Amino acid sequence: MIKEVHLKRFKRFEKEEFLLKDKGLTICAGPNSSGKSTLLHALAVWSFGVTVVRQFKGKEALFEGYDGQGAGLSKDDFTPINIPDLRHLWYNLKSQLPNEGYSMAITVKWDDPKGERHLTMAFSLVQDRLFVKAVESNLDGNTDIPQIVYVPPVAGVDAREEYATLAKRRAMLGRGLAGAVLRNFLMDLEERNRISRKEKQGEKKKLSQTDLKELRAIDPWERLNESMRQTFGLELKVTPFNADFHSVIRVDVVPKRRDGKFWRNNGPSRDLMVEGAGAQQWLTVLAFALTQETDVLLLDEPDAHLFTKLKLELVDRLCEISETGPQILVATHATEILKRHPLERIMSFGEKHPAYLQREVQRAKLISGLGDDYAPIIEKARISRRILFVENESDARILKEIARTCGFNWPDNIAVYATTEKHSDRLRFYRNLLEAIDGLKALSIRDRDNGNLGGVDPANLCDKGVNTKTYPDFKARTWRRREIENYALAADAIVNVIDVQVVQKWWSRRGWAWPQDMEIDQHLLECDIKKPLQILLGRTTVEDFLKGLKKEHIHADLEAIARQICDLK
Predict the structure, then answer these.
(1) CATH assignment of 2-146?
(2) Rg (CA), the chain
């Protein structure tokens, strides 16, 4: 929908332009006070200005060629965002400039079937009154202006919620009190759902399966409830409301459990307020995202009360909604989201001018600026010019001890990056780091898991499925056994910590020859033994056991990888 935003003397920007993806989900990320919320505030204020002018001067005041007066309002009537004083809308708090009445302006550009549209809303502050006017426009009577909804960081749900007019709802949203009017929005969604059901049912006794399937696929209330059931095991129930008799809106949640194809009740219903902050946050965000009248949704840190899994699920759900629904802009600090979201959908505010990321190294720099674990990784890689990719930090600790036992010199300050990503993803990250760190050498080692054994070169454990010819300093290696813990299957070493009879019985139960011949290990390559082995070892962890192996008990694969790491020069 919206493809460009131009700011003149708005908050922290004296002059700035933002080029946006006009569809889908955009993640706005950057350090504190970098301007990501300012973009959202600008769009909210612009939309409010459009509403004010249309209300007091008529829609013609927004059209091309209008030369009338602007509309004025007091501080108390300004509701789009929460600020202590109207002067805080202006760059450096200076609202008065010589020979410039409307000294602050916000321009928004978007496309419609007739081409590009633009509308500039200008603002002036005279004593305690704010004046707003459309100063540049190519709109006409057939132009649809984007409907924008701004949802600031969400506060909790109130114990009682009265029916609120649209003006009051807008005011509460601007003050960051979306939770205070959440039941109002849920009541509207539920009412529209009932109307849709009646229209589809018509004269029939009940909805057909086809109509029901279609309704559940597109209706906001149905989609919201489906999301709540899948994520929290809850369903929403709105108590019928009549403005002539009721003053308080009641929305309950009903616990649900999956029973085959159906959802069954799983306990008594309870008021929405008693649910956790995460469920309330999730519900609030999706309620606004699914509202069909919204063209552009602005979410300021919607993941604030969510743990990592829910953060990622929320972003996935918003991505899905934005494919056919509103354009969504999300401001966040969550590095978990930034690590997995597509580059072309992350707008970085860490640089001088906000722009979408284009390379992985920019992602790493952005995340390091937010204080993530990438920072020490990049710094160590810069110093040592060597990086080791492993699946777990424990893998690096094991290999370091293996190297010491074998008499190898472990590289000083080697950067260790623990990630379950594939070799190809690690290579992509390395490739972008290489642009900033000349001569960077890397070794990537992964568990084979269910991969094809034939894809691993037994001579050096090179993964044949990864093409690194263009980047010879990146070595992709994969264990021949399912996982590194499998190399702890050294019977002569195990009997040093566990009674030999217990080990022999455990060994024989799996059909393996006793005593073990270390030169024959084909029967050990595919076995998934991590958990049973840990049970056998008892208090000794598999990691500690591997780190304590003597030279004669170390498998050739472990020794080979430890040597290759130490040979990174």
Answers:
(1) 3.40.50
(2) 30
Helix (H) or strand (E) holding 278: helix 277-289
* CATH fit for domain 166-341, picks 3.40.50.300, 1.10.10.10, 3.90.180.10, 3.20.20.140: 3.40.50.300
Q: Which residues contact 263 (CB under 8 A, 6 or more apart)?
A: 229, 235, 256, 257
How many CB atoms sit inside 10 A of residue 352's CB?
7
Diameter of the chain by CA atoms?
A: 97
Can 2-146 and 166-341 be said to share one CATH topology?
yes
* CB atoms inside a 10 Å sphere around CB 455: 13
Task: From first to last of the 569 residues of the chain, give the pLDDT tens digit.
Answer: 899 999 999 998 999 999 999 899 999 998 877 889 999 999 999 999 999 999 899 999 999 888 888 899 998 888 888 888 899 999 988 888 777 789 999 999 999 888 999 999 999 998 889 999 999 999 988 889 999 988 887 766 878 888 888 878 877 776 667 778 889 989 999 999 999 998 888 888 888 888 888 888 889 999 999 999 988 899 999 999 888 888 899 999 999 888 888 888 888 889 888 887 778 888 888 988 888 888 999 999 888 778 888 888 899 999 999 998 899 999 998 888 888 888 889 999 877 789 999 877 788 778 766 655 566 787 788 889 999 999 999 999 999 999 999 999 999 889 999 988 899 989 988 887 887 788 999 999 999 988 899 999 999 999 999 999 889 999 999 999 999 999 999 888 998 888 999 988 988 888 888 877 777 778 788 888 888 889 898 889 999 999 999 999 999 999 999 999 999 97
* pTM exceeds 0.85: no
133: nearest Cα among 78, 56, 79: 56
Q: Residue 116 forms beta bridges with which residues?
A: 111
Task: Look at residues 567, 545, 556 and name the one whose alpha carbon lies nearest to residue 473.
Answer: 567
Query: H or E stretch including 317?
Result: helix 308-324
Burial class of residue 92 in the structure, from the number of CB atoms within 10 Å of its CB (0-12 exposed, 13-18 middle, 19+ buried)? exposed
For 20-46, b where at least 16 C-beta lie within 10 A, e where not — what string?
Answer: bbeebbbbbbbeeebbbbbbbbbbbbb
Q: Got the DSSP string for 134-177?
A: EEEE---TTPPPP-EEEE-S--PPPS--B---HHHHHHHHHTT-
373 contacts: CB under 8 Å, gap ≥ 6: none
Asked if the peptide bond before residue 255 counts as cis, ω within 30 degrees of 0, the response is no
Please report, for the chain, the start and end positions of each structural domain, with discontinuous segments joined by +: 2-146, 166-341, 374-566
Q: Rounded to the nearest 5°, which phi and psi values hold at 18?
A: -125, 125
CB 285 within 8 A of CB 261: no
Q: 72 φ, ψ to 5°? A: -115, 150
- Enter the tokens of residue 39: 């973009």
Can you tell me which residue has the tokens 């044949």? 464
**Amino acid residing at 338:** L
